[in-house]
Amino acid sequence: MGKRRFAQEALSDWMRSDGPDSEIVISSRIRIARNLRKQPFPMLATNQQSREVMEQLTAAAQSEELNEISRFDTFILSELSELEKRVLVEKHLISPNLASESRGGALILNDSESISIMINEEDHLRIQCLYPGFQIKEAWSLASQVDDIFESKVDYAFDEQRGYLTSCPTNVGTGIRASVMMHLPALVLTHQINRILSAITQVGLAVRGIYGEGSEAVGNIFQISNQITLGQSEDEIIDNLYGVARQIIEHEKAARERLVAESKIRIEDRVRRSFGILSNASIMDSKEAAQRLSDIRLGVDLDLIESVGPQVMNELMVLTQPGFLQQVFDEKLNADERDIRRAELIRRYLTQQT
């Protein structure tokens, strides 16, 4: 099987553009959960019912209205290798849940990989739109447009009192999850992060790691998202997240200014040590790589290091994940071999920059 388009490069096309406040906000995402009326949820569906849902939704995706937005390809999950599915997870184009349970599963993906539509995940339909930087309102506008197209083609499960019906009760109502992925090293280094995160949970938002629920916040990357989907309108959910995220951005900027004013030599030393280790290490596990890449990214953003650009950091954060490492080196790797290859890959990239 030849390499698919999504496996060719670590950075999706949408990631190559700078968005507002992109030195802090890596990406903005909207995910919409929908189900079809008179069809059991995916976890309860038979193989035949899952196929019927997939056929109905992939047919809807062929509409002229959707293809006026972008060109799309359809991938049947059962036809992808385990490595290809892992790469899709590492690029945040499908969920780990869809990768592990591909019965009747499919992915409809546009050319820039900014729109991914998952079929037969936890719900029949999950529409995801991604934007670089702090563009949560723009992501919502696009996702809503895609959602309207599907709603005009298929019959959604909807209740007048409860709203859109979903497999998990926490998604009932609007069915939307809005999130921003943020790089917050200064708040961590100034020991403000726990206070900030505690305050976030008080206003109905959740804090997760880079791969969502249940994942660890490594490399000082945090995903902030809404918890409430019922009882608030879509605009209220977006506005609440937008307001809180804006405050976090300002806190992170202030913390960075404080670090430069009070501890510039120490921060510069930390950045250069991480650069030196990554440029010379022979073995590097994923957790240490994420932390040291975070240090370098902070140094780039603070103009403490000029030889590396932020796009290189974004690319390395994806390339050094287990699936992509095996894709890059075209070989199956155990944990120890991945640590060796990860170090080799990072050395190669940083050497090219200097």
Automatic annotation (TrEMBL):
This is Protein-arginine kinase. The keyword Disulfide bond does not apply. Catalyzes the specific phosphorylation of arginine residues in proteins. The keyword Transferase applies. One of its GO terms (molecular function) is creatine kinase activity. Belongs to the ATP:guanido phosphotransferase family. It is an enzyme of class 2 (transferase). A motif (RDXXRA motif of the pArg binding pocket involved in allosteric regulation) lies at residues 338-343. It catalyses: L-arginyl-[protein] + ATP = N(omega)-phospho-L-arginyl-[protein] + ADP + H(+). Appears to be allosterically activated by the binding of pArg-containing polypeptides to the pArg-binding pocket localized in the C-terminal domain of McsB. GO terms for biological process: phosphocreatine biosynthetic process. Residues 24-255 form the Phosphagen kinase C-terminal domain. ATP binds at residues 27-31, 92, 126, 177-181, 208-213. Keywords: Allosteric enzyme, ATP-binding, Kinase, Nucleotide-binding, Transferase. Gene3D superfamilies: Glutamine synthetase/guanido kinase, catalytic domain (3.30.590.10). PROSITE patterns: PHOSPHAGEN_KINASE, PHOSPHAGEN_KINASE_C. Its EC number is 2.7.14.1. It comes from the Bacteria. GO terms for cellular component: extracellular space.
